[in-house]
Amino acid sequence: MIKFQEEGKSEEEILRTIYTWGTQADIAAALSISVRRVKYLSKKYDLKKNDKYRVVKRCMNCGEQTHISNFDTVFVDGIPKTNLLCCWSCKREYNKQKYMNKVIEEHWEQERIKREIGTKEDEIEGLRALLK
User: Fold this and answer.
1) Which of 13, 22, 47, 65 could be joined to 26 by an S-S link, Cβ 3.0–4.6 Å?
2) CA distance 2 to 5
3) pLDDT in tens, 76-102
């Protein structure tokens, strides 16, 4: 740090360039100062932590900005489409809706079969009554 200051750079300029290297622990190790000092200097010069791991994207479905790790690929006809990203909450809602539709459809199909069985039994009883 002293070497850079001798070259005419201010402490703030030095820290701004170094802050892109990595985490505060990496910076503290590189400058051989404590992490506490790095935190103090970052607050003093209003430096933000390295955003390398803090990438946000906007969900195509709900429009919310979410951390990149909260995104999942969308499968279209069983093929993953990596350019179509939706957040987990939208994907969960979609899967829940899909499951509910499947359950309702199965339940409706079972009810339809029961109704058909009931009508067939009524027809059989009517035919038995005619035979007697």
Assistant:
1) 22
2) 5
3) 676 776 666 677 777 788 788 888 888
